[in-house]
Amino acid sequence: MKSVIYPIFSAVVLSVLMLFQATVQAQDPAPQEPSGDDVLAVLNASEDHTIFSDLIEEAQLTETLQQQGPFTILAPTDDAFEPMEEELDELRQSPQQLQSILINHLFQGEANSEEVEQQFNVEIENGDQEASNGVIHSINEVFTSQGGGPPSP
Q1: How far apart are CA 15 and CA 59, in angstroms?
Q2: Interatomic CA distance for residues 85 and 39, integer angstroms
Q3: Backbone phi, then psi, for 22, in 5-degree steps?
Q4: For a 10 Å CB count at each end of the chain, is N or C smaller?
Q5: Under a CB-based contact definition with an 8 Å cutoff, are residues 117 and 100 in contact?
Q6: Closest CA to 74 of 23, 33, 11
Q7: pLDDT by residue (tens digit) across 46-65?
Q8: pTM of the prediction?
Q9: What are phi and psi of 43, to 5 degrees?
Q10: What's 68's DSSP letter?
Q11: Residue 77 CB: number of other CB atoms within 10 A?
Q12: How far, in Å, CA of 67 to CA of 4, rounded?
């Protein structure tokens, strides 16, 4: 049963990501050259996002983030996860709940850091990290409300 639920849930995740396209789709006025790596590879190579990268793998979202995109990722730093150590342990025991939390940080379409800060009232620590299939913005908070996404302005 578990092996049937995850592919279906992954399809739902992709559908949700596509729904967010209208919310964050924008053009970067000064695009940087993509690194050639997809957003997942860029996150995995980052020393500041080891927890987020591990959680993406645990929640079985790796295949989704290796697709064409484009994606905008609001990637919490490792420091952002420190205050929620106990809650994080609980989330790791529930892959579906973990996926719900992580989806709050993943969006279809590309938006530059200024647009993300204005749209979601969030402070970008390191923005506009280009990848072959999207852009990553480092943030120092975790959006924990399920299905709620980042705070609205």
Answers
A1: 16
A2: 25
A3: -65, -25
A4: N
A5: no
A6: 23
A7: 999 999 999 999 999 999 99
A8: 0.74
A9: -65, -45
A10: S
A11: 21
A12: 21
